Amino acid sequence: MADTALVIGGTRFIGRHVVEDLLDHDYEVTIFNRGNHENPFADHDDVTRVEGDRRDDTDLKAAALSVQPDIVIDCVAYYPEDVRVAVDLFSDVDGYVYISSGSAYAAEEIPKREGETALCDCTDEQATDDSHASYGPRKAEGDRIVFEAAEDGVNAMSVRPCIVYGPHDYTERLDYWIDRVLNYDRVVVPGDGQNLWHRAYVEDVASALRVVAEEGEPGEAYNVGDRRLVTMEEMVDLVADAADTDCEVVHAGEHELAAAELSPDDFILYRDYPHVLDTDKLAALGWESTPLAEAMERSVADHRDSDRDGSEHDPGREAEERVLGVLDTL
Ligand SMILES: NC(=O)c1ccc[n+]([C@@H]2O[C@H](COP(=O)([O-])OP(=O)(O)OC[C@H]3O[C@@H](n4cnc5c(N)ncnc54)[C@H](OP(=O)(O)O)[C@@H]3O)[C@@H](O)[C@H]2O)c1
From the CA of 12, how far away is ligand 1's center (Å)? Predict the structure, then answer.
């Protein structure tokens, strides 16, 4: 009999790829969500959908009882209480995997390592707050609940992705850069182009979640990110190669950007201090990541098929043109 997997979430981005990966690995899959987003698996015979709100304990309990899953992938645990309820409801599954985040790390170190790099603290106030500022603390508290549950015998694990990109990415962060490369010959990259913000290809995040559910050690956290990471300039070059186009990367320092009232932080995926996750622990479980060129080709192809343009992150092409003008006079 096939193993059964319950995916809490499953219809938008990471969860959607999780479902596909599980199907490719012969699981019977049930997704649990509220039905606010279109279900891409509506016509799929091997995917059952249970409707409910994970913040309503009765709904999740009913799903746990009706599905009796072998493994659970929890895509929508944003509050410590969500994880507390889940490790209790799924205390006897073979693997419960909580999607945490690289934002759970408090210390800026290169690389950030599981079990070594300090995690964020989480106050009672932060635990129920819904602002972006408390996201890292809430994710870290979820990790600690996973660790405690494992001490009580629950097969609970956590996976910490860095910035995730790829098909169906509703955050549109990479879409901004793809859109720039597809539409302009010259693209402004802040600073010297060498800044590093570790990214994770979404299909690799999906496989990581399954591999950890199957092979992970209860009470452990596993970082996930591209095995080989690239600088911002290399990322833009990868996009251009994947799109089979040419694009000149133009560096603009703080001074040149200031001429158009811009700063490096106005550019999405720019981060001053490098954010790099060590991925050795996950790789030791047999997980592998997709070659970057392939990951970017699939991301660009999906961008072209979608109506995403990343415009919500656009610092303004006019301002950028002004920066290019300043640089041309130097
Ligand atoms: N994207 C990144 O760069 C990144 C990085 C690190 C960590 N993460 C983590 O990845 C997870 C997000 O993944 P995703 O959004 O891509 O997953 P997803 O599973 O593809 O999409 C979210 C799903 O959750 C459902 N949902 C939302 N609230 C719900 C609720 N209260 N009860 C039941 N279902 C609910 C949504 O459908 P309905 O609205 O229809 O219910 C949707 O199916 C989060 O835990 C996030 O912290 C993301």
Answer: 7
pTM above threshold 0.90: yes
Question: 32, 33, 160: which to mutate for ligand 1, most atoms within 8 A of CB?
Answer: 33
What distance in Å separates the CA atoms of residue 108 and residue 102, rounded to the nearest whole number? 11
| Interhelix angle 202-215/292-305, nearest 10 degrees | 120
User: What mean pLDDT is predicted for residues 16-35?
Assistant: 98
pLDDT-derived band of residue 58, with 50, 70 and 90 as boundaries?
Answer: very high
Q: How close is the Cα of 126 to the center of ligand 1, in Å?
A: 20
Distance (Å) from CA 130 to ligand 1 centroid:
15
φ and ψ of 31, to 5 deg: -105, 145
Confidence at residue 2, expressed as pLDDT on a 0 to 100 scale? 78
CA distances from 316 to 173, 181, 262, 330 (A): 15, 15, 9, 22
What percent of the chain stands above pLDDT 90?
93
Pocket test for ligand 1, best of 6, 7, 8, 14 (most atoms within 8 A of CB): 14
Residue 189 tokens, joined: 């990259």
**Lateral strand order in the sheet of 4-8:** 47-51, 28-33, 4-8, 71-74, 95-99, 156-161, 221-224
What tokens appear for 3 in the block?
């193993």
Residue among 7, 39, 76, 313 to mutate when testing ligand 1 (max atoms within 8 A of CB): 76
Hey, what domains does the chain have and what are their CATH numbers? 4-165+198-224 (3.40.50.720), 173-197+228-273+291-329 (3.90.25.10)
Query: What is the residue with the minimal CA distance to atom 2 of ligand 1?
Result: 164
Q: What is the pLDDT of residue 326?
A: 83
pLDDT of residue 325: 87
- Would the pLDDT of 144 be above 80? yes
